[in-house]
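Please check this today:
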Amino acid sequence: MKNSDPAVLEALDLAWDDEEGVLGKLRGGQFDAALAEIYMELLQSIEIEEGSALHADFVRLLWFAPLFSEWQIERVAKRGGDAQEASNFSDKVRERVMELLGTP
């Protein structure tokens, strides 16, 4: 899937939804393993051709996800969730975003 595909953009946006998205639920201190798996499958499905322009909404919805998910680990733990599972998810998101966007 390409980064400008409307389905990709919609799915990335949904991940931030407080009720249906893995990142939105993390904001509330809830880690949902099933949603995390779906999100990672989405990230794995994205392909960016070398030299192609990135859609602004794609970058907006993606770049903050690694930092955000890392910040929520403590919140998950305080709500009785599995902090290690949330941490593993955060690490996977960071690694995939680095693969997609590159590093300096």
Q: What stands out?
A: DSSP finds seven helices and no strands in the chain. The chain has a mean pLDDT of 94. Residues 72 and 86 are 8 Å apart (CA to CA).
